[in-house]
Amino acid sequence: MKIPAPVISRCLRAIAADWELAHTKSLSRRTTLLHIRSADGIKREIILQTHSERDRGRNPHIARDEFRLLLALQKSALPAAQPLRLEAAHTPPFFLLARLPGAVQSAANPQTLAATLQSIHAVSWRRLGLDFLPQATALLTSDLGTGKCDSLGICAALTYALPRLSVNPPALLHGDFWLGNLLWVDGQLSGIIDWEDAMLGDPLADLGKSRLELLWSLGAAAMMRYTAAYLALNPALDARALPFWDLWGALRLAHFANFAADTATAARMWRQYQQFCASSLSCPPGIPPRLDSAS
Questions:
Q1: Given 3-state DSSP classes, what are the helix, strand and coil percentages for the chain, each rounded to the nearest 5?
Q2: Which of 37, 133, 240, 253 is most deeply buried (CB count within 10 A of its CB)?
Q3: 5-28 per-position pLDDT tens digit
Q4: What angle do CA 51, 57, 62 make, to 5 degrees?
């Protein structure tokens, strides 16, 4: 939903009395770039974030929670955007944050991506007071309780394995870690964006979903290098349940055709999706993933 300009202007003036909205540019369905004029003549760019009706239905306080998370992450080493203003009473709720430098890249070194994911999981979420974030297992249980069926048998496999699942100690999870949510300047990571799916849980839940994202964007060989690099950085993790978390990631990304560029891309992604799921479904609960399999 588009936020009216007068509402944005009032919000800007609450941050700085001399800030005026010059013009806006839509960057995505939930992200708008605001160009700001001010008395000091400095040109500023601010990001306005909203959330979809579906996301607000899942979590009515999603704007507040993401804003709180970004505030807390200012005390960490992660390159997260500085939150500026929350408008929780507006319908829909939204917030403003400083624009991070950099741009999305279509490719990145798998080892660098693994190190970036590991840096997220290494954040001391207890010290930052992030216990308000949802638990991954609760979201998983909710997904399985919707009654939705899938043609590959993912839900049945997850439901069967869940009572036997052994989880690693909880970490901060980004929830949507992929190339589209990373910004770069001259080959260096400059920002991690879009934290609306953040949660607490087994780090393998983040790894599993991002493995499928990486398969689509960079291919099977890069996905395998990424997985091996991440696990090498985290030798204490019990990786035997990775096929389980792969499947939950696949279930959460079952709508992938919605963001395919064309029918040929959608068909290719569907083939990779089927192979990825088949590889995970072939691993009984508790058996280490076949990291050398061609997904």
A1: 45, 15, 40
A2: 133
A3: 999 999 999 999 999 999 999 999
A4: 45
Q: What is the pLDDT of residue 1?
A: 60
pTM over 0.90: yes
292 pLDDT band, cuts 50/70/90, is very low
Neighbours of 186 (CB within 10 A): 6
What's the count of helices (H) and strands (E) in the chain, helices before strands?
Answer: 10, 9
At 147 the pLDDT is 66
Question: Is the Cβ–Cβ distance between 179 and 222 less than 8 Å?
Answer: no
Domains defined along the chain, listed by start: 5-98 (3.30.200.20), 110-281 (3.90.1200.10)
Which residue reads 């001391």 in tokens?
124
The model's confidence at residue 76, banded by pLDDT at 50, 70 and 90, is very high
How many C-beta atoms lie closer than 10 Å to residue 39's C-beta? 10
Backbone angles phi, psi at 170, to 5 degrees: -70, 145
* Sign of the CA dihedral running 249, 253, 254, 257: negative
Q: Are 274 and 212 in contact (CB under 8 A)?
A: no
Contact 49, 15 (CB under 8 A): no
- pLDDT of residue 135 exceeding 80, the answer is yes
Which residue has better confidence, 111 or 291? 111
Place of tokens 């693994």: 114
What letters, b where the CB count within 10 A reaches 16 and e where it falls short, cover 58-91? ebeebbebbbbbbebbeebebbbbebbebbeebe
Give the neighbor-by-neighbor strand order of the sheet with 94-98: 20-26, 31-37, 44-49, 94-98, 83-87
Mean pLDDT of the chain, nearest integer: 93
Which one, of 48, 43, 39, 32, lies nearest residue 16 by Cα?
39
